[in-house]
Amino acid sequence: IAGGAASVTTATPSVLVTGDAGSRVFLTVSVSAPDCATVTYPAAGVFSSAFDGSETTSVGLGGDGVRTVFACFQDGAGRTTLAFDDVVVDTTVPGAPDLQEPLAGTRLQDDTPTFRFSAVGGADRYTVTIKALPAGTNIAGSPFSTTTTELTLSTALSNGDFTWEVVARDNAGNQSAVSGPVTFTVDDAPPTAPSG
Predict the structure, then answer these.
(1) Which residues contact 166 (CB under 8 A, 6 or more apart)?
(2) CB-count exposure of residue 117 (10 Å: 0-12, 13-18, 19+)
(3) What is the rounded CA–CA span in Å between residue 114 and residue 112?
(4) pLDDT tens for residues 18-46?
(5) Cβ distance 185 to 160 under 8 Å?
(6) Residue 179 near residue 99, CB atoms below 8 Å
(7) Please, are residues 118 and 100 in contact by the beta-carbon 8 Å criterion?
């Protein structure tokens, strides 16, 4: 069974089964391994005597948690073999992070600011998107991916208005709602000296 030991965001994922072409295949989700010598192999269908060596089908895994998918293979001579893989079902969407710095309306004199936001339980990475206004186009390098709750820009921003927003993601690929956008201003130009 290919692609096992993976995290999925649906309880009915597609499973890729590979083996010897012409084998009959019995597929099941169980807490214990089946006896491949005694199971009933399908006579027709996706997994039949016409198995081409690599086929995909969907399996029902139930609710969140670790599930084991077993596949029995039987060749034309009646010999059997067993394959299995664990799949983690995770359908829980992470919460949205709280944006902490810079806050809405902040004027920054630092053109390589640090963006800070709260950690989210279950999330293992965050995507930070920064856009220049008024066009709303991504700055160079945006969106940024980080595993921590802060991001410091290495390339200076020009003076002007910007927005930033954050999305949390977990290992299975579940994505939070977008936090933001929050608008801030970069202004590191010194004031004009008074004349006279």
Answers:
(1) 96, 97, 99, 115, 117, 126, 127, 128, 129, 178, 179, 180
(2) buried
(3) 7
(4) 888 888 888 888 878 888 888 888 765 45
(5) yes
(6) yes
(7) yes
Residue 6 DSSP label: E
- Compute CA 191 distance to the chain's CA centroid, rounded to the nearest angstrom: 46
Q: How far apart are CA 181 and CA 81, in angstroms?
A: 54
124-182 pLDDT, tens per residue? 999 999 999 999 999 999 999 999 999 999 999 999 999 999 999 998 889 999 999 99
Beta strands, E only, the chain: 6-8, 14-18, 24-29, 54-58, 65-74, 80-89, 99-101, 107-108, 114-117, 125-132, 137-138, 144-146, 150-152, 160-169, 179-186
Single-letter residue type at 119: A
Measured CA to CA, the distance from residue 187 to residue 129 in angstroms comes to 20
Residues 84 and 1: beta-carbon distance below 8 Å: yes
Give the pTM.
0.72
Q: Report the share of the chain in percent with pLDDT over 70.
A: 92
The residue with tokens 């993601």 is 169
SS (H, E, C) 29-61: ECCCCCCCCCCCCCCCCCCCCCCCCEEEEECCC
